[in-house]
Amino acid sequence: MRPLIRTACLRARVRAMATLPTPAAAAAFSSTRTPSSPCASQSARRLLLAARFLHSGPPPAGARALRTSAAAAAAAPVQVGGVKIAREDVVKDDDPTNNVPDTIFSKIGLQLHRRDNHPLGILKNSIYDYFDKSFPGQFVKFDDLCPLVSVKQNFDDVLVPADHVSRSYNDTYYVDAETVLRCHTSAHQAELLREGHTHFLVIGDVYRRDSIDSTHYPVFHQMEGFRVFSPADWSDSGMDGTAYAATDLKKTLEGLARHLFGAVEMRWVDTYFPFTNPSFELEIYFQGDWLEVLGCGVTEQEILKSNGRTDHVAWAFGLGLERLAMVLFEIPDIRLFWSDDQRFTSQFSKGKLGIKFKPFSKFPPCYKDVSFWINDEFTENNLCEVVRGIAGDLVEEVKLIDNFTNKKGMTSHCYRIAYRSMERSLTDEEINDMQWNVREEVKNKLKVELR
């Protein structure tokens, strides 16, 4: 998976800008608050910011209605971080600013990272061990924070620009105009700083609308590390605060990489993130190739000053657990992390990092194509939400295989959908039913013309 502080910028560089919903009057905003939402009354600035994501009239194609009702009626509330979350707190059928489907609500509260015998829990605990041994008693750990956060926490507090692609409905799950499912664990950074924490690790499930393939999933897990330094820490070092923090950061993370991967060759790559300066990516040479491990940097002064840490410096890093676990355990498909199949779960044990996954019978895929004329509001993420809503984890990949524009200026896309269960062979009837439903939903919800 993508490291926490890399993704917001990476998407802006490698993906086309999503079409944002047209603004509506601020009065149209829902005043509903989830129990966990920290939002106070709207200021004029917040109204203007949120208005960018409201659509006057019906919601944009795919922005709200991409959800299934399979388990909606029977969905039980879940407890996360002491907060009780019911389906109606997250999936709001009557709120035009909501785009969270039932398939996403069903993942809240599962907390794979808190299972000691799960690959993600094993990796998390190994990282904890490194920090406990390297910095005894210094880092406070948070792994049960509620994933419902405000737009301010998720974006503004970490300096994500107001016009950044990551704020769009195409990339983020909005509960309402002011509340989202966190896109990264950095959403808790400002709150923890204000509470007085100077050394902390935050781990949790994060949510992003994304493509469908073996390495991407709309729910995954991240860890953020954060350390604050006071002037007394660097005054005798002969370095300024920024250089001191950057040196300590690199030393700390090189040690973490050796702890996880052994004696590997490493290199640092300069990069850009909106909330750190300077910013870096750490890569290791592993199994014959360079692997990006994490993103990191020296925290922007604006973040520290806004949260009561004037004249201090800090570093932050972020990593995706699935990305590293797929390498360390040789797990080929990200969907496997969510499997309850004993042939998967029984292979892993508490404290045993790097046990190599032994594939069980791999059932054959079935490929089906769907072609249609796209409209101006079409995005691939919306298509993937439709397919996930129908097929769930039975869809392995959605891939664009052909596109062209005719003399009338109409553009056609052809997508190949790969259906495959990790646990059994799918019948022709099942696959045909899913494909028929996908075609109907694509036509009705994305408002495209099938070919």
Structure write-up:
This protein is of the alpha+beta class and about 450 residues long. It has 14 helices and 16 strands. The strands form four sheets. A seven-stranded mixed β-sheet has the order 3-7-8-12-11-10-9. Strands 14-15-13-16 form a four-stranded antiparallel β-sheet, with helices on one face. The two termini are about 35 Å apart. Mean pLDDT is about 85; it is low at about 1-75.
Task: Summarize the entry for a quick read.
Residues 361-451 form the FDX-ACB domain. With 451 residues, the chain is α+β, with helices and mostly antiparallel strands.
Secondary structure: elements and pairs:
Layout (H helix, E strand, L loop, with lengths): L6 H8 L29 H8 L26 E3 L2 E3 L1 H4 L11 H4 L13 H16 L5 E3 L5 E3 H4 L19 E3 L2 E3 L7 H6 L4 E9 L11 E11 L1 H4 L6 H21 L3 E9 L2 E11 L2 E11 L1 H6 L6 E8 H8 L13 H4 L20 E8 L6 H12 L3 E11 L5 E9 L8 H18 L3 E2 L1
Parallel strand pairs: 3-7
Antiparallel strand pairs: 1-2, 4-6, 5-6, 7-8, 8-12, 9-10, 10-11, 11-12, 13-15, 13-16, 14-15
Report the total helices: 14
The total beta strand count reads 16
Approximately how much beta-strand content do the residues carry? Answer: 15-25%
Mean pLDDT: 85
Net shape: globular
Unreliable segments of 5+ consecutive residues: 1-74
Structural class: alpha+beta
CATH superfamily membership of the largest domain, which one? Bira Bifunctional Protein, Domain 2
Name given to the CATH architecture of the largest domain: 2-Layer Sandwich
Q: Biggest sheet, strands in spatial order?
A: 3-7-8-12-11-10-9
Question: CATH fold name of the largest domain, please?
Answer: BirA Bifunctional Protein, domain 2
CATH class of the largest domain: Alpha Beta
Between the first and last Cα atoms, what is the distance in angstroms? Answer: 35 Å
Helical amount among residues, as a percent range? Answer: 25-40%
Could you state the order of secondary-structure elements as H and E?
HHEEHHHEEHEEHEEHHEEEHEHHEHEEHE
Largest sheet: 7 strands, mixed
- Number of structurally distinct domains: 2
